[in-house]
Amino acid sequence: DAGVTQSPTHLIKTRGQQVTLRCSPKSGHDTVSWYQQALGQGPQFIFQYYEEEERQRGNFPDRFSGHQFPNYSSELNVNALLLGDSALYLCASSLGGASSEQYFGPGTRLTVT
Amino acid sequence: GEDVEQSLFLSVREGDSSVINCTYTDSSSTYLYWYKQEPGAGLQLLTYIFSNMDMKQDQRLTVLLNKKDKHLSLRIADTQTGDSAIYFCAEGSTLGRLYFGRGTQLTVWP
Prior knowledge:
The structure holds two protein chains of two kinds. Chain A contains no helices and eleven strands. Chain A has strands at 5-7, 10-13, 19-24, 31-37, 44-50, 53-57, 64-68, 74-78, 87-94, 103-104, 108-112. Chain A is globular. By secondary structure, chain B is mainly beta.
């Protein structure tokens, strides 16, 4: 039973560039949520995708956008990267959006220079 | 329900019990969670409790929930050096959004 997978593992980008991060949910799950974890902090909710629609959004600017595909995998896009976007980006999967069990992937470490 | 508070550090000796505490603010939370994060890794779901329960036990882990005081605790029995990690408390909204604390760094001394 495959768990949540994310790619790439690490990424280095320059300020102003754009980045795309990818997530495949746990087998049988249909909901993907994205979180940003800055160093020394707890994860902060970016948004959630369910049935290919953005269902909830946290307090993040429009530079952060996403997509969910028919196979439930998801992408997180960040435009016009800022130094402050450097963080660990975590993907969580669940079933039905309000499931009790939410499983996280290993994360993508993004460094913006 | 966006304020989740945890103490930042806890040190225990191997074999002792560890108790990590957490307070939250949203009385409408559906589930409350404990996650473990090791250096450079993602979050591992340890256990969770439905908001109308008082206690849940799972092997070495015991979760206690005091809904009146909005207080959650995680007790790890017979703590081992491999339990050294950061532990996050999180509350879940009805639509599944999680609100996390800043995490408690648990250090286990041999």
